[in-house]
Structures are given as C-alpha cells and as structure tokens.
Amino acid sequence: MYSNLRLTLLFATFSLLIIACRNEPETTGPALQNEVKVRLSSEPENLNFLLTAHASATEIFKLLSMPLASFDPGTYELAPTLIRQMPLIAEVTEGDYKGTVSYDFEILEEAKWDNGSPILAEDFLFTLKAVFNPNYSSPHRSLTSFIKDVQIDPENPKKFRVYGAKYIIAAPVVSNFELMPRYVYDPEDIMANYTLNELKDPANKEQLENDEQLKAFAEQFSSPLHLSDPQGISYAGPYRLERWITGQEIVLVKKDNWWGDQLAASNNLLSAHPQKITFKFIPDINAAVSLAKNGEIDVMGRIEWAKFMELKEDKIITEQYNLHVPEKIAYRFIILNNANPKFEDKKVRQAMDHLFDRKEIGETVYYGFSKPTIGPVHPSKSYYNKNLSVRSLDIEKAKSLLDEAGWKDTNGNGIVDKKINGQQVEMDVELLYLNGFRDYSSMGIIFADAAKKAGVNIIPTSMETKAIFTQLRSKEFDAAFWGEDWYPLHKDLASRYHTRGSQNFGSFSNAESDDLIQKLRRIVDDSQLPPYYMRVQEILHEESPNIFINTGEDRLMVHKKFGDVRVTAVKPHYYLNEFTINQPVPVKTSNN
Predict the structure, then answer these.
(1) Per-residue pLDDT tens for 439-451?
(2) What per-residue string of b and e applies to 499-512 under the rule 16 or more CB within 10 Å gives b?
(3) Which of 126, 141, 500, 548 is most buried by its number of CB atoms within 10 A?
(4) Rounded to two decimals, what is the model's pTM?
(5) What is the DSSP letter of 103?
(6) 391 and 533 share a domain?
(7) How far from 200 is each of 208, 334, 382, 495, CA to CA, in Å?
C-alpha cells in the first residue's frame, strides 16, 4: 500500500511538472543557429553547371560543386581543392600533339561522390564530352574549345593528362573546371560511346545533331530532374540542394560525412562551417533591407550605391551589420560605335574622352571609392601601363579635336555638325544604359552637361537588357555604357578588342593590336606577357575605341554575428563556406 501511494504521489508530481513546463513562457537564450541567409537579387535559371552562366547560379555552385582547383580569396591564385597539386605543365615537342601544352592532374584519393564511389578522371572526361553535345547550348563550349584531348592513366584511374592548344588562360580554365558524376547525369553511359574528338569535329555536326543516342542524352540532361530537382542535382562540393521553391528560395544543407572535412584543417578552401545556407530571391532592395532589419537576411551584395551610403547612416543596420566595399576585377566603360560615321575619326573619340569628368563622377556617383583606369587591364596587374594617364575633363581640348575632325556649328544651334555622304549630320549621341542602373544614369547626366559645352548633344537612354543586346549586336547604336568583370586571370582581349572579336560591339579595328592580341593569346610563359600588354594599352589609349571609366567594386553587408569575415576581389566577394557564428544570437527557445 505504501508503495502504491508513493507511485501515486510521484505520478502527480510528474504531471504537475509537465503542466508547469507547458505553461512556462519561451525565453531568450544564447543558442547558436549555424545558418547563413543570403539575399539574391535574381533567381538562377537552373543548377546544371553546363547549362548556365547566370551570376546567381555561379554563386550557388561554389557550395554545391568542387572544381579541380579554386581561387584563394587572399592570394587570388588558384590552389588545389579536388586534386593533389596544381597541374604539371609542359610544352609537347613530339608525337600526335606536338605544339600543344599538356596538363597532368591527379584527383585526391579522399574525393568521393555522394554515393561513396570515388571521383575519377572518367568523370572529368564525361563532363567535358557533355559540354560538346550539339543538341543543347553550353556557355562553357567556347571557353574549353582549345582542349584537344584527355588521356587517362591506365594504371591509375584518378590520373589524367589534358592536351590543349597554347592559350593564355588555358591552365586556369582547365584547373578551375567542375566535375559532374557520370552515374547521376549519364546513368546509361551514353557519352562513353563517343570520343571527345568526334564531338568537337565540325564535320560531324549534322550527323551528331541527328544522333538518337545524343538526342536522348540531351533530353534527360536538360530535363527538370537535372535543372532544379534535388534528386537530380549532385556535385562534389560540401552542400546538397535540399529544396528550391520557385520565386522564393533555394536551401542548401551540409552533407553528412562530406569527404573534404578530413582535409579542411590543412586546406581552408575545403572548409564548410555552416550547416545550412538559404538563398532568398528578393529583387527589391528596400524589401531586402526590411528583412535584414528583422534578422531574416545575413548577407547582401550588389547593393546600389545610393542605398549603400544610406545604409551606412542607418543606426539599426550599423549596429547589426558590417559594411564592406571590396574591389572587383572589373572595369566600366562606354562603347563607342567606331563604325558609326560620327566616331570613325579617333580625334572625335578622343574629344569624347576629354568630355567625361571622371573626377566629379568618382566623387559624386561612386563616393570616392572608384579608381580611374586607362583601359581593360586591371591596375592590380604588374603589366598595367602606368606610363599612360586618363584624359581629364578639358572642354577646350575637346572643341579643338572636334574642329580638327571637321565638326563645326555651322547653323548656330549650339550643336556641332558635319556633312557626311552629302547630308548635314548633327552630333547627337544616343547613350544607352541598362534600366535600373542608377550609376549609369547619373554618369549620363554629368557627361551630357559637360558635352553640351563643346557642342555635343548626349541623349541618355534607358533600355532593358535584351533591347540593348539587340542594338549592340546589330551595330545600330551610337554609344552604350557597359561593364565587365572576371576572375583574377590574365585578360584575353580578343573577344572585345580584336577586329573579329565576338563581343567587339564597337567595331574597333587596328592591324597592330590584332597581331599583338593574337600573339598574347598563345603565350603560356607569364614572363613574356608585359611588353605585349603594354603596347596594346598604348594603342587603345591612342585610338580610344571606348571611354574607359573606372574599376569596379561591390557593396556588401554581413551580419556581425559572423565576426570579421574575409572579403575579396574574387566573385562573389565573400566565402560563405568560411562563415562561423562567433557571437550568441538571441533566439526563442524553451528551457525544456
């Protein structure tokens, strides 16, 4: 009886404790949420590495995938991540590939796919073959077209040699290449039936486009399963896609027992601290800031300048966030249509350069953060031509140059004019810029005010991206604001500054620079680069095919709970894998 009474009392006491716990209010505790929430201004097209070059997708790939080598955020140099060491590079002097360059790689023994199988050289070869399947378009095709062949070591399936034509950025392109698991993306091993040379040979194009096996591969490879479905998205990196809610967010979670964890202590590029990373799609900056103030966003980049300066004065923001302005490997410029009769004469182009007030623009549009530049070579490079100076605002010099080129105000309306093909043409210049880019809009106003004093009528015109591309490709435009940013590689100038360059929208043509650019593209010894780059910059400065404005920079805000994170010139300018919460973050918890 006594025993039964004691049990009854214990049960009653236990019941009261449960009731008390249920009624006890939630309290604030010091629990740490090892999660990073990132704002993206736009949603990726897809998460198939070979089928997109979208900026948002590229940022997410840094966590999902793992290239052979990655850019170190401190040194800006490539360092091994999926390989034992950087490739051994040699010029081939004999055999079938005489005159090419070879790159020898060995994949880490520890590197494994999500199913536990080893990452092999065959996965590299498969991925490269998939680039050249003609039944879809891959943005990586032109960049990897210099590769001639891949040979796998018959005694070690993790060793392989890549043969490629001499190309200035060949080593980083091959080394920074991502791998995709064959067992996920080609379960029937279709691509094994074709050689790389067969797929690349233009003579086979029509036959391959009608090949039923290649068409079947292309259909499944570009299906929703391998574009956005967590079941069909798989790479070698530390995170996996948990969910993608269209229009809202992408959520990544840390893989269990990821192979890189055992090596992270000796290679920081393999570190992966957050357990969860959420990318929220928020186009409107004001909505993003409101969420940040409520603690729903930890990281924001690409903040428009005026808004960024406003945030620097916002006490709620500055109490919670560190604001950064990391330099980008980038430059802004105005494309002048050299094929347009208005800009055929380099004196006119030089005059336009003298009407661009970089000093005022640097102070008022970029708040003193931008660096003027004389051309497309970044000032951080040793071969940036410091002997050249940017042209300063000089209205009288601009007037003189226009006069020498035959542009005079013959009708007294304040705008210079000239007879071209029998018709009197006024110097009206439509200056295109991307809709929503306030810095371009502000620069256009400043440019127009100065140009008017020299008799040039600048007409800033906002357009959507697709419309501007149409104008540029058709070469039916006067001038356009543009920007370019890239990884810390040597700059291949051919695309934009060679006569036959695919992005030479301004139709610039110069025989000497064409020759120098072609020679530059074939140099693999860095010590030989400076004289070529220096001379090309001299030619571009003299010919003024574009108005070169300044280098680029990003505007970031990162929650202080992550401490002093590293910011870098390497896109996206922060390394989320390194983020670690080092301050207690108040969250609602229960004491039970």
Answers:
(1) 999 999 999 999 9
(2) eebeebbbbbbbee
(3) 548
(4) 0.87
(5) E
(6) yes
(7) 10, 36, 36, 21
